[in-house]
Amino acid sequence: MMNRRVILIIILVVFIILLPGCRRNAYIATPDKKSTPAVTLIMTDLDSAYALGEGIELRMRLIVDSPKPVEIMFPSSCPAEFVVFLDGEPIWNSLEGMACLQVINRVSLEPGDTTEYATQWNCTTKSWKGVTLGKYTVQGILLSNPPIKTEVQTIYLVD
Fold first, then answer.
1. pLDDT tens digits for 62-75?
2. Kind and range of the H or E element at 140?
3. Where are the domains of the chain?
């Protein structure tokens, strides 16, 4: 009985020690396995001003800049999110209230490939309250491992 406990503890300790060493580092993989800025993520088709209450389509484009194919790993079924900020504070997130399956998904892209992600912001906040006229900022985030963010873009809600 004592020998079983000792063996079980040894196996458990070995498993705990070796498990972190088995994890792969997070990077956008290229065939040579070097971590490189192989892709560009940009917000597209975003006007500078919108009428208050108008649905605003938020769109971003992923562009493969690498001369070699790249592989992007997504840790869930939700590949992208968009966040709207007011005075630097997030007021809306495209994934708010959504369920994302925890499934690892690997996507291979060839040089020059582009992929687009889009959602609609209906000018509400996290609490479903309407927003007011003014200056807002928007950012798209590719939920890859590691995540990639677009530059923050400014939009205005006007009459």
1. 999 989 999 999 99
2. strand 134-142
3. 2-158
